[in-house]
Fold this protein.
Amino acid sequence: MKTCILTSRLDTHDYDESGVRVAHNFGNENGILDTLLGTVEGRDLLVYVASDENAYDITDMYARLVFESFDMTMPFDNYAILDGRRLNDAKVLLKKANFIILGGGHVPTQKAFFDKIGLKEILHDVDCPVLGVSAGSMNMARVVYCPPELEGEAKDKNFVRYFEGLGLCDINIFPHYNDMKDFVLDGYKMMEDIVYPDTYKSPVLVIPDGTYVVVRDNKVEKICGESYFVKDGKIV
C-alpha cells in the first residue's frame, strides 16, 4: 500500500537575525510528525528529489535544511539529493529509499525533470512513502492542475495548465493559500481571476501552509488542518 503525503510547506527552518535560514525541529503541527513516524518504515535512506535538475545551489540549500531538520526530529542514517548530478543513479537511489521527498519549486520545470528521469515509472515499483512539498505535491496528481506562477505566464495563452502527472493520487491541491489569496499576477487576482474559473473544469483542494493530505493507494484518507474545496468557482 503506497502512502503519499501532500503538503504546502514542510516547516523545517526559520530565519536568524541576519535573515539567514536556520534549520529547526519541524515539530508536530496538525500531527504531521505522528503521521510520518507511523508511516515510514526504516531509517536508512531519505532521498530529496529536486524541482530543477540544474539549480544546484538552491537545491543544496533547501535539502540541507530538510536533512538537518530531520536529524533533530526523525533522523535517518543516510541522506541523498537527486538532481542533474545523479541522473544515472535515479532508479537505484529511489529503490533503496525508505522515504522520498519531492521538493517545491516551479511546477512545469519539475515536471520536465521528473519526465527526464522516468520518475513515474520508477515510483510504480517503489513502496516507500512519498511526501510532496508544494510543487512536488501538485505533480503527484494523475492529471496535474498547474496555474500560472511566474510573471508573464498568466498572460500567455499557450501556457499549459493541465498535463499528465505521476499518477499517485486523483486530487489536485493548490498550496500556500495564506500567501496566494491576495496575490496578483500579470494584473490578475490569483484566486478570483485564475483558480476559481479553472475549477469549472476540475475541482481543487486549496490548503495553507501547515495543512497536509494523506493519500493511500490513490484514495484520500484524511486532510489534516484547514482546507477549502473549490468547485465551479465556489469555495467551501
